[in-house]
Design goal:
CATH class of the largest domain: Alpha Beta
Structural class: alpha/beta
Order of helices and strands: HHHEEHEHEHEEEEHEHEEEH
Number of domains: 3
Shape: elongated
Largest sheet: 8 strands, mixed
Distance between the termini: 53 Å
């Protein structure tokens, strides 16, 4: 039995389609159909019920699927271990980043790491903390930058940044000349928030609820620049991390929020359950050293 047979079988099972699996694997449909047929003949079982409109696994197919997943996982771990033997001459690291994160310092560290290990490639995925946690848990990302608190039963982590949120508002707003604003004074304002995939959304709403009001949310976005532009057109106010509250449109100001201040705490997480490649471990060690040295 060839490992490729199992990998093709996994792809067909995942997509419930020979044609879509063939497209994903960049092979022809007759090729993948023949591979699956060969596998069925070798095992002496039928893996897929082809009589229905929708392709479905047979009982035997479901059993084979679970074993095929284990074999595929073991082969991936073997590949990772072999990379280790090459002394980090090659490898790939998948990192989740929040779009609200000022990535300048982070990318400088990526550049230094690449200079030291030019054979290691990076995949950088922008998403909210909740989606990043989900992707790390499901082994779609190796590490991710998220807003604390995180799920300590699932992830290990170390802190990289803690800062307060600033009030972002048009310079024509009645509060624009203030040096600081009490959070409760925003009870009647229209809020522009990051969408619900972002932990910051929950943090802001909870802080407002604690003071006895539910913020009026007129819009949500996943892009910090779009939020800043909406504020510049006087559509509402926003609360953004201090590190991204400097590069604002000309008619937009940032002001300190007090009573209470709202802070966000960023950390790098990785799964306690998933295998972490040697390249990813070295990356975590490297970035921790760089942050300590700052």
């Amino acid at each position: 039995m060839d490992i490729k047979h199992l990998q093709y079988f996994l792809e067909v099972a995942r997509l419930n389609s020979f044609s879509r699996a063939a497209e994903e694997l960049f092979i022809t449909q007759p090729t993948i159909s023949k591979m699956i047929k060969n596998l069925e003949e070798e095992l002496g079982v039928v893996l897929f019920d082809r009589s229905r409109k929708q392709l479905a696994l047979t009982d035997a197919g479901r059993i084979i699927l679970e074993h095929a997943k284990l074999v595929d996982h073991a082969m991936k771990n073997l590949s990772t271990d072999l990379d280790n033997l090459f002394g980090l001459k090659k490898g790939h690291i998948r990192i989740g980043l929040p779009p609200i994160f000022d990535a300048n310092d982070f990318l400088k560290i990526v550049g230094k790491f690449h200079e030291k290990y030019p054979g290691i490639t990076f995949q950088l995925v922008e998403d909210g903390s909740k989606k990043i946690e989900e992707a790390v848990q499901n082994n779609l990302l190796d590490v991710g930058i998220v807003v604390l608190p995180t799920k300590l039963e699932l992830f290990d982590y170390f802190s990289i940044l803690e800062e307060d949120l600033k009030l972002i508002l048009p310079d024509s707003h009645p509060l624009a000349d203030r040096e600081e604003v009490n959070l409760v004074e925003l009870a009647q304002e229209s809020f522009i928030l990051f969408n619900k995939d972002f932990a910051l959304n929950d943090r802001i709403i909870l802080s407002c609820n604690t003071l006895g009001f539910q913020p009026v949310i007129i819009s949500e976005s996943s892009q910090q620049n779009f939020i800043k532009e909406m504020v510049s057109y006087e559509l509402g106010i926003a609360l953004l991390p201090e590190s991204i509250s400097h590069d604002l449109p000309e008619n937009v100001k940032s002001i300190k929020v007090v009573n209470p201040t709202i802070s966000w705490h960023l950390a790098i997480i990785w799964s306690k359950e998933q295998y972490l490649s040697y390249a990813a471990k070295e990356w975590l060690h490297f970035i921790k050293q760089e942050l300590v040295a700052k």
